[in-house]
Amino acid sequence: MAFERVSKAASIPTLFAAVLFYLATTVQATATGLLRDADIEHALVQLSAPILRAAGLPQSTRVLLVDDPSFNAFVIDNKTIFFNYGLISKIGHAGVVQAVIAHEAAHIANGHITRRMANLKSARTAAGLGLALAAIAAAAGAGEAAAGIAVGTQTSALRSFLAHTRAEEASADRSAAAYMSRADVSPRFLVDLHETFRGQELLSPSRQDPYMRSHPLTQDRLRAARAYVAAHGDNAPENLDADYWFARARGKITAYTRAPKWTRQRMREESHADIRFMREAISYHRERDLPKSLTAINQALALRPTDAYYMDLKGQILMENRRWTDALAVYKTAVDLAPKDALILGGYGRALLASGQPKAAIDVMEKARQRDFRDVRLLRDMSLAYAKTNQNGMAAVVTAERYALQGRLKDAGLHARRAVAQLPRGSAAWRRAEDILIAAERFEKGKKR
Description:
CATH class of one domain: Alpha Beta
CATH topology of one domain: Zincin-like
Low-confidence stretches: 3-31, 120-158
Oligomer: single chain
């Protein structure tokens, strides 16, 4: 699992509108990082896929994990649902997670985000949202701009942006219940979600859970959810597959965020043996006990020998213990098992780089980058690989993109300028660098106004 301080965006190089938003003010918020982990993101795909299909949303819609222990989930564009890791670690059932996904998907499908983003074209409203992902639309010439807004949850401005009206909430509830029924997920879990927040309306805003502040609950909404269950029944079959992937995501999150001793004490409550071993492996890895960590992850792999995500974890454990050759072999197996997973490809590229094969690493990393541009760690590794192969212009443009993803536009502009000076004029990489340079220059001009 990687903790990354990145801003959310549809992609780079589609970065310009957010810069225009940001120029209205120089106030910056503390951005919250994303937690990037192939296993957890795969688990969230398994939980979200039937809901997204029922909602008519593309399967490319992502559910990403935010490094925040509070109970919250939100959407800021039409492509991504954000979950605080605290929501998953505190919820007790897969169905409740799917209820949250259904509710957030409804905000997208019902056009709530589209209308809100249209209202933000005045720029000053969005400027208060904090760290914005920079840049100019369409290096390929498409001319479409995508606004990227920081995954920050600390400012009142962002909370205001995330806060839905009660009418939107009621609409999202109705749609969510229908999606859940069509996906064979009991709408009873939507009632369970609402029950979690009963009584919070009586608390002052500062004491309310963040989810409550952005998703106002009323007794009418709770009654409506109960009425839907009464009218449509609660006949959804038990979904053991969803239960498994929820337990796996929750188990990995808690293994990384709770004390190792706590993990080993509580993992006995886990009914899935492979997840117990996975949690045990992480707990020992965090204590730098390589032999016990490898023993545990190998036990998990003995139960699921073709599991690419356990292979990925084993590769990470070996890499972080400087066992480069062993890690390379394990990551190669993981890629063979999941050749399209960008995060696993990134890990394989990292192992190639650590093993002294920077050219081969670049080939793998570029494939990963084409699939997922939000991996800051990947961009850092790519810059090192390009530098080791004396491709300093490429190292500069990748570094510029990494800083842009982190909202560090001044640093991004500095490296973009270097890239523009070194890359062949008019090449694809040169255009990427020029896009970021223009965005950074506009940002600096806006600060001086």
